Task: structure prediction
Amino acid sequence: MKKIKANLTFPPSKVTFPLMTLLVREYSLEVNILNADVRLNKTGKLVVELLGDEKNIDDALEFIEGQGIKCHIFNGTLSIQEEKCIHCGACTTVCPSHALQIEQPDFYLTFNKEKCLVCGLCIKACPLRILHLDHRESEE
Amino acid sequence: MPVKTIEEINERILEGKAVVVTAEEMIDIVEENGAKKAAKMVDVVTTGTFGAMCSSGAFINFGHSDPPIRMTRVWLNDVMAYGGIAAVDAYIGATELSESQGMQYGGAHVIEDFIAGKDIKLYAESYGTDCYPRKSIATTINKNNVNQAFMFNPRNCYQNYPAGTNSSDRTIYTYMGTLLPEFGNVTYCTSGQLSPLLNDPEYRTIGIGTRVFIGGTHGYVSFQGTQHDPGQVRMPNGTPASSAGTLALIGDLKKMSTDFIRAATYEKYGTTLFVGVGIPIPILDEDMAMKTAVSDKDIYTNIVDKSGKTSFSQAVSYQELRSGYVTINNKKVPTSPLSSTVKAREIADLLKTQIKKGEFLLTKSAEGLPTDKKRLNKLEVRGY
Result:
């Protein structure tokens, strides 16, 4: 079994394409939609977690690309230079999976690695630039 | 009727008898005992804030070279500093960007590096005069080899500030952080119930000459800050409904610490400086006890659309903002702070310890801050 996290970018013409159904039916994948921004006649974005046989995932990725849907696989892990963090909260605002949070009552930044999509949005949102990806993202 | 004077409070501090609490602790004290009793019990309330304050910078006197130069254009680590003052004085502003690294490095970073004790590359040019013949100089400076270096911030400690959101269909990058499309998030940036000017909303004790904690050392309120706007609409508890008073602060840069001064870059906006400030408030009477007991549920601001697409404005309390979500157009919208509560609390606690130990005495201001109702001028576009 293999699990990947990916960002799928749909061209406006493909927003109505039932991709998730096909991934489940034709490739026996378990699909978990983590974030979605889909609007008719506009470029759509889906952040998904795909779980399945390695071959099925590879075939599915080939199928997705063949449909003109751009697939960006998130690799690596996010690291925080914790000793430099001032707990301002700017990174939490862009985190789509709420892996980064600042909560009452103590307002310290917490990072849940399990929830992290490794999307990298927080890296530029951090005013102190102390968040980094340990491995570069690869594109497939 | 006054309960005690600043002089009496200072005597108690020196005797080691002063009762000092943070602005957050004061909330419970007043709730449990009432303001009248609390005014007798508590001598000083400490406040704290640690937020990005763009209107910050530092004056540095480099000392004279041989032969001397009257610096007309000055760069520190490739960041331009203002040299249009005396021969070897310059002002480095937090938001000036590096000419070689762009937004990744700016005046704020020069200031942080200087405080950290690092060598800073100095390059300056001049047209040369009979008394200052040198036309350029390239050297390094640091906090041990310059003469004076003092932070002078024209506008710090904004008394309240609007929270930001974005109604447009694209992500926008602002000094209020990254704002997601279609009201995707809300950011806010004061320390609320811990914030200095929200605990002395009518500037009864904070004024010109007030000693403050700034950047890890002691400094002073030197004047009203730029854009000081005391005429802002007020809530019944005296706090402003949106941005109002500001302070111009001064302090010795050489004595500051990077624990309390940090450089920052807001994506596609530029650089700015996180400044840690704490101000002690003497509890002179029942009114000051009541004012310093203000809590997030009683402090309001407005959420505004930073995309400029709409004139959207919605009142919101800091209690709501700090809960993690607010409701906009019947939609639950996540909120996030931009100013650090962790550091604000650290500052208020540190100041409390310093006062208790007698290391920090309170000052009576030389002059109060303006309280007039005249609102800010707008800059008219007159053509050319």
About this structure: The first strand of chain A starts at residue 2 and ends at 10.
